[in-house]
Design goal:
The protein is α/β, with parallel strands linked by helices. The protein has 11 helices and 7 strands. α6 packs parallel to α10 and α8 packs parallel to α10. The chain starts with a helix and ends with a helix.
């Protein structure tokens, strides 16, 4: 118990000097307050809230709290706030969250610890929550395919698309801050740059994340956007490494050798 307490104290001390928490928020008046209260328990160097396009009291709640609130009267679009927050952050480790889930501090600590321990990027391990095949939708398949193309099959369905995740500030700089607005492409760039991508914690966002019902014949715009992001990521990798990405054609190579 004493050793565990000392480790926790050491983590909080590092957080106070090195950790920037970046929260994207839009119309989250119900969850932003509880989330910020939970985040204070991590003793971060700073909390940056990218509030954009809210028509409720989200902005007012943030302004009453001890956070750096960067506010926009218009909607930035999905994941754009991450790029802005990363560029503005002064910490060595960046923890990315969305304000629609009131994460507990103990759920987030493993992502931070992973970056302190050598990981450049620490992803949310979602693989544990795929308990039935019906959960594997088009987006999940795209995530797994991209990871295989990047020679990172052990990551499975884990992706920078999902929160929470953490990364070193220098990793964000190597990727390019603007690229963080397209998470799969950012992940592809990180892999090509040789950055160390690992699993951090494992938080079940399937249960807590708000979902919008899509009726038959209706276009799921968010799903289409994420699929498009993955296509952009694959196109980027192919533009650098060729049509096979990082994969090698071992079957044809073996057949050619056998003919010699």
């Amino acid at each position: 118990m004493v050793m565990e307490g000392l480790k926790n104290l050491e983590l909080l001390l590092q957080n106070s000097q090195k950790l920037s928490i970046i929260v994207c928020a839009r119309n989250e008046e119900e969850t932003i307050g509880p989330l910020l209260t939970n985040l204070y328990a991590l003793f971060p160097k700073e909390i940056i809230v990218i509030e954009n396009g809210s028509t409720d009291k989200t902005k007012e709640i943030c302004q009453q709290r001890h956070v750096k609130c960067i506010s926009y009267c218009f909607t930035l679009g999905h994941d754009v706030g991450r790029a802005i927050g990363a560029q503005k952050a002064t910490g060595e480790v960046l923890l990315f969250l969305d304000a629609d889930i009131a994460f507990q501090a103990e759920e987030l600590a493993p992502f931070i610890t992973a970056c302190y321990s050598g990981a450049d990027i620490a992803l949310n391990n979602l693989n544990l929550f795929y308990t039935r095949s019906s959960m594997i939708d088009y987006v999940s398949m795209a995530k797994a395919f991209l990871n295989r193309a990047l020679l990172l099959p052990h990551l499975g369905y884990s992706s920078l698309t999902a929160i929470p995740h953490a990364m070193k500030k220098e990793a964000a700089e190597a990727i390019g801050f603007e690229q963080l607005s397209v998470p799969p492409k950012a992940q592809a760039i990180a892999a090509l740059e040789g950055l160390k991508i690992e699993h951090g914690g494992s938080v079940n966002v399937f249960k807590t994340n708000r979902r919008r019902d899509v009726h038959f014949g209706e276009v799921n715009e968010v799903e289409n956007m994420i699929l498009g992001d993955h296509l952009e990521a694959l196109e980027y990798v192919q533009s650098i490494r060729g049509s096979r990405s990082l994969l090698t054609d071992t079957i044809r190579k073996r057949s050619f050798i056998n003919t010699l």
